[in-house]
Amino acid sequence: MENISVAQVESLLKSIKDKNYQEAASIIDELVKMKNESLVNEVKELSAGLHKSLESFGNDTIILKHTKHDLPDASERLKYVIEATEEASNKTLEAAESVLGKLETLESQITDESVLATLSTIQTQMTDIMVAQSFQDLTGQVLNRIVDLVTSLEKNLNELIVKAGVDLDNVAGLEATDEQRHEDEMKGVGPNVTKSSKKDSVSSQDDVDDLLGELGL
Amino acid sequence: MQIDRNMNILVVDDFSTMRRIVKNLLKELGFSKFDEADDGANAWPMIQTGKYDFIVSDWNMPQMTGIDLLRHVRADAKLKDTPFLLITAEAKRSQILEAAEAGVDGYIVKPFTAATLNAKIQKIFERVEERKKANAG
Prior knowledge:
The complex is a heterodimer.
Chain A: H1 6-17, H2 21-58, H3 61-109, H4 113-132, H5 135-163, H6 178-187, H7 195-198, H8 205-214
Chain B: E1 8-12, H1 16-28, E2 33-37, H2 40-48, E3 54-57, H3 66-74, E4 84-88, H4 93-101, E5 106-109, H5 114-136
Helix pairs in contact in B: 2-3
């Protein structure tokens, strides 16, 4: 900020002593104007800094890549866990229900006390197996919360990226290169549970056998 | 005390696995008539038909929570006495107190055992019976 000069103050004092109030008012106006200008400059600087941060954010390819690929991928994987555990739980429940039904039929046909006692133990244990499947609900609730969090994080990052003036669709180099993909695959990528990871994957042991068969194995 | 095993029960949970488990346990306890709903919002119009003698509900569901469903039931002159059991993973003291305040008859925290469910149902219907006697006397 431009500093108030002694001359300005002296002429202000002089104009007041001289009762030249018009002159005094114009000097005060000038001082206020100087103060305002400095404020505007500070805001300009702040905004430039902010803009710069946004720009460097928009140039941060790791954040862009996480936002475009990894966060949606993470949600998809978590949803897969919920579905896979649900499927497994339902299979277990189906089997447990069927066994319990058969035990009931057996119970009505058996009179031997010791066999009946064993049946009753099996019944209790089958019920335990069934009730233990509630893990699917409990873990599913936890995962659902994380899916919500990841989705909201993704949305907020996307908004910030738009503000930084970046069009995610047009940024080159966000897709994994063949080399990177190969490197990941050699480390092992786990089950292919997302739409994009299912590309170029086999879907059954038959596919594996066919593929190896073509190679004479 | 004899519980009417022919009563109509509504099981409300957004997880189909849990609905299945609860239904199987109720079956083992001798009950046979169940309907299911996957959310409080879908359960409420079913309950309003007046069909159900007992409601077993989860708390955390996407559209209408179990506690809201309970409040709807308790606020309805015709339905307000329907026994209502919450089976939920919500285990904060404040939540349990809130449920009690809203008029829940029983509160089971997941994971639970068949024995717990049996004990709570016994207790709920004993109390229902006492209430009936008190009202009659």
